[in-house]
Amino acid sequence: MTGTTGVVGALGRVNSLVLVTLGLLGLVASLGVRDLASAGVALGACLAFGLLLLPRGTGPAARFLAVVVAVASVAWSTWLLGGHDPTVAAVAGMRIAVLALPGVALAPLVDPSGLADQLGQRLRLPARFVVGVAAALQRFERLGEVWEQASRARRSRGVGPGRGPVGRSRHAASVTFAVLAATLRDATAMSVAMDARGFAAAHARTWAEPAPWTRTDTAVLALGAVAAALPYAVLVVR
Amino acid sequence: MASREVRARLRGLRWRPIGRATPALDDLDLTIGAGERIGLVGPSGAGKSTVLHALAGVLGEALPGELSGTVHVDGAVGLVLQDPGAAVVAGRIGRDVAFGPENAGLPRDEIWRRTRHALDRVGLRYPLERPTSALSGGELHRLALAGALARAPGLLLLDEPTAMLDPEAAAEVRAAVVGAIDGTDTALVVVDHHVGPWLEHLDRVVVLGPGGRIMHEVSPGALHDGAAAGPRDELTRAGVWLPGVPPPAPLDVPASLVVPDAAGPEVAVDGLVVDLTTRGLRGRTSTRALAGVDARLPAGRLTAVTGPSGAGKSALVAALAGHLRPAAGGVRGAPSRDARSRELARACGWVPQHPEHGLLALRVRDEVELTGRRLGVPVDVEAVLGLLRLDHLVDAHPFRLSGGEQRRLALAAALAHRPGLVLLDEPTVGQDRRTWAAVAGWATAAARHGATVAASTHDADLVALADHRVRLGRDPLGSDRATSPGGVVTA
C-alpha cells in the first residue's frame, strides 16, 4: 500500500487520530445497517479490516468478550420484544457488533500523547481540553490498581462479595463508588501538579513533538471510509 | 541573608479550604531570599503543604477555597508532590518532563534541550522513550523533580519528597535535589517529617504551629543532635522527628482491645512464588513479585518484613492476608485466596499501605464497629477511639480526617475485632511521632497478648521493636534470616 511496508499490521503504524476516526466510522457504518445484507457486508468488512490490518497480539483478547456479551444481550432482547423474529434479532445484534468492534479493537493502540499532538496541532482543538484528555487516558491503568485495593480492603473487613448475584453486584457497586471517589481525589492532586508546571497560565502552548501524517495514515483512513460506506452502498444497490 | 534579593513573599496570608470552618493558614508572613534553602517543619495538620501550595499559586485555582493576603513570587516555581505518581502526565519520561517547557511556549529544540538537561541533573539516564510505568518509586520522585527543574524554577518546593521511600532511595532523591540546585540561585523550601538528613543543606528552618502560624525561625544548627534544648523539645512534643531524639515509647494498648479469642497461628511460608498481573488498555503485564520465599511467622511475636523497594514486601503481606494466589509453593496458617470474606476477616486483620483504601463507612464510629458487627464480635468503640485520640471525631466522615488521623482510624478499623493474625503494610510511612507510637503500640501489644503480627517496613525504629525478622532481597538494615530475593520478569 505504501510501497515500502506491507499491508499486514498497518494499524500498528498509523497515528492515533486515524485510530480514533476509524472507531467513529464504526458508528457511521452501524447506522447503515438496516437488513441482513447490509449487516453481513458491514460486519464482513469490519472483520476483514481487523484480521488483515490489526497487528498480532494487540491488547487483551478478553476485551472482545465485552462485544460478544453486548451483541448477545441486544439480539436476545430484540428477539424477545420484537415478535420473536430471528432476522430482526440478528440484524440488531450485528449492528451492535459493527458499532463496537472497531473501537474495542483499536483502543489498545492509541497513544495518549500522540493523540493529543494530533488533536492540538492538526485539528487545533483548545490545548487545555486536549492535554486534559491525554492526561486522563494516560492514568486509565491506575483504575485497575485502585479497584484491586478497594476490593481487598472490603474482603479483609468481612464485607466482601457474597456467593449470590445480589451480593456480588452490591459489592461491585460499592467498589465502583470507592474507585470514583479515589479518582476524584487523584484528579485534584493531578490538577495541582499540572498547574504547578505552568498549565494554568499556558496561553501560547507549544508541542514537544510534531503530529506526523504519513501515506499509510491516508491510505488506511480512505480504506476505513470505504468500508464504512459499504452498508449504505448495499442499501442503494438493492 | 538580609542582603539577599527577595525571591518570594507571603504577606498576611489567610486560607480557608472549602467545607472547613476554620482557616488552615492564618495571617502568615514569610519571605524567601534568592538561593535561600528553607526547611518547613511542624506537627501533622499545621498546614505545611498548604504553604507550598500557596507559593506554587494553586490555592483558589486547582484547590477551591477562600484566600486573602498576598503571594508574590519572582520567576517560575517548581513543585514536587508527596505522591509523584499523581503528577505523571505522559507515558514516556521525555514527554513527561517536556510538559513544563511546552506550557511555557518554548520552541521545540529548547524544550528538548531543557528536558535532557533536567533528566541529566537528577541522574535519570534512561532513553527519553522509557515508559513512565517502568520507573520505581524513587525514580518517579526524580522524574517529578526533573519535571520541576525543566521549568528553570527560581523557587523549588518539595512536599515530603522522601516519605514513601526506603533509606537508599531517599538518599538518592536528596542527592539529586542538592546536586540540581547547587551553585544556582534557585531557592528551596522542603517539607519533610524527617528533617534531619536535610539540615546540613539548609540555611533556615521555619517551624509552623497549629492553625498555620509561624512559631519559630531557627538556624539548622539549633535542631542538630547535641544542640541546646528549647525548640528541639518543643518540636519533639509536637510530634516532629529530629535527629538524635529516640523514638517515642509505643502506646500502651490494654489487653482487652487486642487479645485474640484463640492464640495466633504459626505461619509457615514455603517456596512461595507470586506473580502480579496488571490489566490495562494495552493488555496484561505479569510481574514476578515473590520468587520462592521461605519464612516463618511465630505466634506471639512481631515479625518485621524488610527489604529494598521492589523486593516484594507488600506482596508477601498481601499473600499472607489471603489476597494473592500463589503461582507455586504455599502458605500454612494464614487464610487462602479462596476463603470467604467473613472467614478471612475473622482469621486475619490487614492494614493496607494507603489508609484511604481501607475506609468504608460514613462515620468514624461506624468504621471502627463495622467488622466486629459483621462477625458478631463486640468492639469497645469508646475505648479504641479514646486511646487513639480520635474521640472528638466519632461522628466525623473518615475522609475529613488528617493523614495521621486516617492512619490511626484505618488501624482501628482493621484490627478492632482482635484477629489472631495481624498484618500491617508499611504502617509508619510519613507519620509523625504520635501516630508512630499508636501504630507501634498496637502491633507490640497484639503480639504480647498472643497474636501473630507481621509488618512490612523500612522504618529502622519499628524494626528495632520487632522480635523476629524476615528479609527479602538485599537489605541495609541487616537481619538474622535471609530468603530468596524477589526477581522481576515482564511477560
Automatic annotation (TrEMBL), chain A:
It is a multi-pass membrane protein. Its main location: membrane. Keywords: Membrane, Transmembrane, Transmembrane helix. The chain crosses the membrane at residues 6-29, 36-55, 61-81, 88-110, 219-237. The keyword Membrane applies. Pfam families: CbiQ. The keyword Iron does not apply. InterPro entries: ABC/ECF_trnsptr_transmembrane. It is found in: Membrane. GO terms for cellular component: plasma membrane. This is Energy-coupling factor transport system permease protein. It comes from Krasilnikoviella flava.
Automatic annotation (TrEMBL), chain B:
The keyword ATP-binding applies. The keyword Transferase does not apply. It comes from the Bacteria. Pfam families: ABC_tran (PF00005). Transmembrane segments: none annotated. PANTHER family: ENERGY-COUPLING FACTOR TRANSPORTER ATP-BINDING PROTEIN ECFA1, HEAVY METAL TRANSPORTER. Belongs to the ABC transporter superfamily. This is Energy-coupling factor transport system ATP-binding protein.
